[in-house]
């Protein structure tokens, strides 16, 4: 005989199987006033009216068993899973064509990415500076670094109390 479940299933009427005695019982419960109801043993073979299922004829039971799950689409089958065996069965030229196809896809994806990067308006990063003097650009960069260093020194001198 198999062991009973750790958390026995209860029927609609509240009947469970006692794990110690393996008898069908209604477990003890607590009333709203705090008193405890005793555990009630159920005779073998007895089925309370709440647990009696509705009568279904053979055809009705078979129709219920054959019903499709909710959301199922008639005629739809999942696509077959590709296996490694299908790759081994390909000829040499088929493998080459597949590699060429992958390279074309990669190249197309790279072209699209480049177009997006070129067309993207990023006003924050681009600074409009005159290109007449190379020395002015160098001094502007140095002044920004000096400002950053000065700010770092000020933050370093701050005291937190």
Automatic annotation (TrEMBL):
GO cellular component annotations, sorted alphabetically? cytoplasm; exon-exon junction complex
- Composition bias (Polar residues) maps to 134-143
The record, for SUPFAM superfamilies, names: Pym (Within the bgcn gene intron protein, WIBG), N-terminal domain
Q: Which GO terms describe its biological process?
A: exon-exon junction complex disassembly
- Region described as Disordered: 1-161
Q: Which residues form a coiled coil?
A: none
Stretches of Basic and acidic residues bias are at 20-36, 95-119, 144-161
Single GO MF descriptor: RNA binding
Cited PANTHER family: PARTNER OF Y14 AND MAGO, PYM PROTEIN
Domain WIBG Mago-binding positions:
22-48
Q: What is this protein called?
A: WIBG Mago-binding domain-containing protein
